[in-house]
Write a structure and sequence with these properties.
heterodimer, A: 677 residues, alpha/beta, Rossmann fold, Helicase, Ruva Protein, domain 3, six-stranded mixed β-sheet, 23 helices, globular, disordered C terminus, B: Helicase, Ruva Protein, domain 3, 3 domains, five-stranded parallel β-sheet, 11 strands, 16% strand
Chain lengths: 677, 335
């Protein structure tokens, strides 16, 4: 279907174009990840590549399209030992697209149905990995790729081989491909392991320049009105880029990397504190390829700088220097004719920040508060903040919500229980006919039949079974049922201490900030939230369980502080809300998040306020569907009580401070997860 | 057969009706998201659209309803047919994705009959194929399960559905006007998905007691005797259809002045909208608005109205920052 944009018709985005061309020319770079705002021609550019891919030399008759000089399949290797040269023909490299809805058998390949049924033979039907060998594998919205597909890709990308052990087939074939992914970080992060697989990473931004934005608009209009004419108009430029790629491939083996620049490269990469050595390898190959694309035989400083910029964007750790040296304004010594006159400016515009910063875009108009809430506040302020006795501050006050921070992963174990709720936090098997099919199993039950698996199971028996007018005779032993998986959300019950003691030393601000951040996280995971505050004489349910996180935010914003601390009343209310919810949705996971300094000073019964709270905590701990988490906001000055720790022990829950709620500053290299129970 | 409430009999909700009409006149605008409380004619209006749609020419037998126009993309089925293609006329389809739909029905899957009878793997087109050149309607779109949203994201942007499942590999064009309704009380849409909707209208219940009364009366009349109620409104509906056809013709010749174009782009930059989709949508909506008003020149008001339809849901904000803040009316002022 020839419906896509020509590559050269995309205005601006020069860095993205360079990165894509480099990956096409040199597979050793290891693919590229495009991350950034929606509507910035990410997918259009990748798909436009399809027309530009150079022809490959392919061994005649080899089903895995082996390279005639360095074949990788056993047949070709054997033949090469006998003959000095293998006959080859030219075949276009492929851009293979992996849709998110793909099934496993299409990705790695499976049993060929026709052969099984009509001939009774087990033959292999090639999957996408085989088609992508020596080409490109493109995954749009790669951060949404289901886990079971992702692990298959990771495995193949790491080994360069696709091993098939399924449907009674056992074989392996070479699968070396450049992975291209595009994503919008708003939708959640990419798995760190997959992130590292991408040699390069481009942060894509929209054009902010008026004139160029106008040009984009007009261009697009022209394209929509007359596709054919537009494609024709760019045919020349497309041909030139195609030629540039072929030329670059030819030049590439001869490009030299000056010793001086090599040592500069190692210095830079070391300074960026990247984990592992994949970074150097990516920088090295990218610099060589960029020089080749410019038809030069030696790597220059600007090649190296752009290479560093592209290869370190997703690997740099925060403690390193703020950003890599920006690619110089290399307008003058640019040799590629195809570059539009705007490219240099474009390069300097792309902010060299880490991709994960993107979804923490500061709220407009909240900047001043961002200053107030410096990230390490809870640790730093602790020494000199005077303690104000709780009963001194009965006056009410409404504190502002500060800047959100990134919550570290609160992941729960995938369990064996089947659930029916929607959401994204917990992965679960599901029994209703919803969710993604991940596998199939033998079952006499005819509901949710995995048709293809059933037919495949029956196919080998057809020679001995009686077939009347149908071509296939299926017996109950062949039935295969779909195993589906989906992610369910949980209910987050926020129990927030709004008593007077929380007004001291910015505790409430810090609390609101923490809750806000947790809410953001809840939004991304599609959790439900409920919101309970306790202050004065009682605990109040400000928000019954709802999917609208927006409402929770409003409740949080309007939450006043002041009065005494009826902790036990709060806990009781939380248990009430949770249990009520469980009665209706008995399979939801409930996470009770208690944010307080736990200085209870009001009891409901005859026990002391603290004793009562602890007893209530033990009661909650008895309910296995409720997981709790205590966030201690007590300021650890000269005098502190650590009641939160004790409460957490009674609840059998972890006790965290706001500081250790925050996500690691490293590029998620360390994945520390909290497993609740 | 179920009777559909006539489009022109809907009281008030002019913005909603206008947004829907714009999309029918120019399907490349990219659909509309209807946000609002329960019982504000959201679904009624969307469903009523089907009566307003003019007929299209399709290739005979094509599961996707491909157009015989050679410039348009075609599905592999059509490509395998000998040219010139046989054509036929049919009405534009309104295809609804229910919340409980399974992925294989949405994107398409293996054809059971062919697999069983002949042992051949054949593609069984799904809802996305059916919706090609028509309207894809999702009621309560914010409750759509994630894995279905993931699928729609890509198809809605590229207009192509690539299927790689259950041993079938198939790719067909799937361009549709995406119409979704939602009640924001039940949670928001994912930002990426939000961006796929060209326009967004906010509907509220009417305050005027007289209008409310006429809603009740009309609804009661429809429920009592749908056939004669529809007949009664047929002429008005017909007029709307004619208006659509006329606007389609005028729409090809609408021009926009350089100054307004600049204004348009500056607005998008000022509001710090992500990406370029907003510019394109605003541009198209403004042109179509002019065409709808029987003009061949885009006016300032057209542009302002287009911005109000295309920008609010694209304003950059935290996922659940209070929406009131963003409802600040989008006006260009006299700058």
């Amino acid at each position: 279907m020839e419906s896509f944009w020509p590559f050269s018709a995309v205005i601006g985005q020069e860095i993205m174009k360079q990165a894509l061309l480099a990956v096409v020319v040199n597979p050793a770079i290891g693919g590229v990840l495009l991350t950034g705002e929606k509507g910035t021609a990410k997918s259009s550019l990748v798909r436009a590549l399809n027309h530009l891919l150079p022809p490959l030399e392919v061994v005649v008759g080899c089903r895995w399209h082996c390279d005639p000089v360095r074949p990788s399949c056993p047949d070709c290797l054997k033949e090469l030992r006998q003959k000095s040269r293998l006959p080859f023909l030219l075949k276009k490299a492929q851009l293979v697209e992996l849709p998110l809805s793909a099934t496993e058998d299409r990705l790695i390949g499976g049993l060929a149905l026709e052969d099984a049924l009509l001939l009774g033979q087990r033959t292999f039907q090639e999957g996408l990995l085989s088609r992508a060998h020596r080409g490109l594998l493109y995954v749009d919205e790669v951060n949404l790729l289901p886990d079971h597909l992702m692990s298959l890709i990771l495995d193949a990308a790491a080994s360069g081989v696709n091993r098939v052990q399924r449907d009674g087939l056992s074989l392996e074939h070479p699968a070396r491909f450049s992975l291209i992914g595009s994503m919008n970080p708003e939708e959640g992060e990419l798995h760190p392991q997959l992130l590292d697989r991408f040699g390069l990473c481009v942060l894509v931004n929209s054009e902010k320049d008026l004139a160029r934005r106008l040009l984009i608009l007009k261009n697009r209009d022209e394209f929509d009105n007359n596709r054919a004419a537009c494609v024709k108009k760019y045919a020349d430029q497309e041909a030139r880029i195609g030629h540039q790629i072929i030329q670059a491939k030819k030049v590439l083996p001869e490009v030299r990397f000056p010793e001086k620049l090599l040592s500069k490269m190692t210095r830079e990469v070391t300074a960026a504190l990247c984990s592992g050595h994949r970074a150097e390898i990516a920088v090295y190959h990218t610099a060589l390829t960029l020089a080749a694309l410019a038809d030069r035989h030696d790597v220059r400083v600007m090649d190296l700088e752009l290479a560093l910029f592209l290869a370190l964007a997703h690997r740099r750790r925060e403690s390193g220097p703020r950003h890599p040296e920006k690619p110089q304004d290399n307008k003058d010594n640019k040799t590629e004719e195809n570059r539009s006159e705007t490219s240099a400016e474009e390069e300097s515009q792309t902010p060299p920040e880490k991709p994960k910063d993107n979804n923490l875009q500061s709220l407009e108009g909240r900047d001043n508060q961002a200053q107030a809430g410096s990230p390490d506040m809870s640790a730093e302020n602790s020494e000199n903040s005077p303690e104000i006795p709780p009963n001194n501050s009965l006056a009410e006050k409404v504190f502002e919500i500060g800047e959100p921070f990134k919550i570290k992963q609160l992941t729960f174990m995938k369990d064996r229980r089947s659930r029916s709720d929607n959401g994204r936090r917990v992965q679960t098997k599901t029994q209703s006919c919803q969710g993604r099919q991940i596998a199939s199993r033998q079952s006499e039950d005819l509901t949710d039949l995995a048709l293809e698996a059933t037919i495949l199971a029956a196919a080998p028996w057809q020679n001995v079974r009686d077939q009347s007018d149908l071509i296939i005779n299926i017996k109950p032993m062949d039935y295969r049922q779909k195993i589906r998986e989906k992610k369910t959300g949980s209910l987050l019950v926020f129990l927030v201490d709004a008593s007077g003691s929380m007004g001291a030393a910015k505790r409430m601000e810090e609390t609101k900030r923490a809750v806000f951040s947790l809410l953001l996280d809840a939004y991304q995971k599609r959790d439900k939230v409920a919101f309970i505050a306790f202050r004065g004489q009682e605990a109040k349910v400000l928000l019954e369980p709802t999917g609208s996180v927006e409402r929770a935010y409003r409740a949080l914003e309007l939450l006043p502080t002041g009065g005494r601390t009826p902790l036990s009343a709060g806990l009781m209310k939380a248990r009430e809300v949770s249990e009520r919810h469980l009665r209706k949705y008995d399979q939801t996971k409930i996470v009770l998040i208690i944010i307080s300094d736990c200085r209870a000073n009001l009891a409901l019964g005859s026990l002391s306020p603290l004793e009562e709270a602890f007893a209530e905590g033990r009661l909650i701990a008895q309910n296995k569907m409720i997981n709790s988490l205590v966030i201690d906001v007590e300021v650890k000055g000269r005098l502190f009580f650590n009641y939160s720790e004790v409460l957490a022990q009674n609840l059998c829950s972890p006790c965290l401070t706001v500081a250790n709620l925050k996500a690691e500053t490293l590029v998620r290299a360390i994945r520390s997860e909290i497993y609740f129970k | 057969m179920r009777h559909t409430y006539p489009f022109s009999a809907i009281v008030g909700q002019d913005n909603l009706k206008k947004a829907l009409l714009l999309n029918i006149i120019n399907p490349t605008i990219g659909g509309v998201l209807i946000r609002g409380e329960k019982g504000t004619a959201k679904s009624t209006a969307a469903r009523a659209l089907s009566n307003q749609l003019p007929a299209i020419t399709v290739i005979k037998g094509c599961p996707c309803g491909c157009s015989p126009n050679l410039d348009e993309p075609h599905c592999p089925y059509c490509m395998s047919l000998p040219q010139p293609w046989e054509t036929e006329k049919r009405l534009v389809k309104v295809v609804e994705i229910p919340i409980g739909a399974t992925e294989d029905r949405v994107v398409g899957s293996l054809n059971l009959e062919s697999a069983l009878k002949t042992g051949q793997r054949k593609f069984e087109p799904g809802l996305l194929a059916e919706a090609h050149r028509g309207i894809l309607y999702v009621d309560e779109v914010n409750l759509l399960p994630d894995h279905l949203v993931d699928v729609l994201l890509d198809v809605a942007a590229m207009g192509v559905n690539t299927v790689e499942r259950e041993g079938v590999s198939f790719s067909h064009p799937s361009k549709f006007v995406l119409v979704g309704t939602m009640n924001p009380e039940e949670g928001e849409l994912r930002p990426q998905f939000l961006d796929r909707f060209g326009l967004c209208v906010e509907v509220v219940g009417l305050d005027d007691p007289n209008l409310r009364l006429s809603i009740v009366k009309r609804r009661a009349a429809f429920d009592a005797d749908p056939v004669s109620f529809i007949a009664q409104w047929r002429q008005a509906d017909q007029a709307v259809t004619e208006q659509i056809q006329k606007a389609r013709i005028i729409g090809q010749n609408v021009s926009i002045s350089e100054a307004l174009l600049e204004k348009l782009v500056t607005t998008a930059i000022d509001f710090q909208v992500d990406g370029h989709r907003s510019d394109i949508v605003m541009f198209k909506a403004a042109k179509t608005l002019a065409a709808l008003a029987d003009r061949t020149e885009v006016t300032y008001e057209d542009l302002e109205q287009a911005a109000q339809l295309a920008l609010p849901h694209r304003l950059r904000r935290q996922p659940f920052e209070i929406s009131q803040e963003n409802k600040r009316v989008i006006q260009f002022g006299a700058r």
